[in-house]
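Need residues for this backbone.
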């Protein structure tokens, strides 16, 4: 576990404040965190899918991706959600993604598709895993309003290509890295089932961080360390400054 975490701790400019961990480990915080975590898994899949559709694949493949997301989006955006029906749905019929065709003119399209399709698959699976744990514990899924974290990072994304894509990939790397760091920090305080689950997530989230960063480097085809340092400072400020919200990616809880 330390081996997985070392590069992530180096990448992030600060570690999670003790105050956030103190609040997170209280019993009454668990429901909030699980619901927010569940939301985040789906958002992670949707964000990656947006990038693939916008930059890498042709129109028919874009449609195929939307079909893949449909059962998940129907579930979360529907008023009366039937968790059992969703979790027991005919996965083979709905969720298999076929061969995707890259649109011409983007040299890194195939690499983006490869890495992001794997990531999307895993995030969808994580979403279902969190949902199943919540269901077992009688916690009801709800859509949560996004906090300041992702918005605060996205606000810094440059508005011309390929800088926009490079910045979005760097932001993806930070969100994945922070998630990984928080799973590791929280795990020791959780019950056995959640502890095992959060530790099991570390490996894939660490790879997601690495995949985003590698894509950013390859697509920029230049040194991105200055941009990485810029986002590291913004991210650290969002994580360490006081935050009136309490969520999975929130800052230090108000005293
Ligand atoms: Fe995930
Ligand atoms: Fe992830």
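Answer:
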């Amino acid at each position: 576990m330390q081996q997985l975490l070392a590069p992530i701790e180096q990448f992030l400019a600060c570690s999670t404040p003790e105050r956030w961990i103190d609040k997170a480990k209280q019993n009454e915080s668990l429901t909030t965190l699980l619901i927010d975590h569940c939301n985040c898994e789906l958002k992670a899949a949707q964000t990656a899918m947006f990038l693939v559709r916008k930059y890498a694949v042709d129109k028919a493949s874009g449609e195929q991706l939307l079909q893949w997301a449909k059962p998940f989006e129907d579930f979360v955006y529907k008023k009366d959600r039937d968790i059992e029906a969703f979790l027991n749905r005919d996965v083979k019929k709905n969720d298999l993604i076929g061969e995707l065709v890259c649109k011409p003119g983007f040299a890194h399209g195939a690499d983006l598709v490869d890495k992001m399709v794997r990531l999307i698959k895993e995030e969808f699976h994580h979403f279902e895993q969190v949902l199943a744990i919540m269901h077992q514990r009688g916690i009801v899924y709800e859509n949560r309003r996004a906090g300041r974290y992702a918005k605060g990072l996205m606000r810094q994304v440059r508005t011309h290509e390929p800088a926009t894509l490079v910045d979005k990939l760097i932001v993806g790397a930070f969100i994945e890295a922070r998630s990984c760091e928080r799973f590791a920090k929280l795990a020791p305080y959780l019950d056995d089932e959640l502890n095992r689950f959060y530790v099991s997530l570390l490996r894939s989230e660490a790879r997601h961080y690495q995949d985003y960063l590698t894509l950013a480097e390859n697509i920029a085809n230049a040194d991105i360390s200055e941009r990485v340092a810029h986002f590291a400072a913004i991210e650290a400020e969002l994580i360490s400054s006081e935050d009136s919200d309490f969520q999975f990616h929130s800052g230090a809880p108000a005293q």
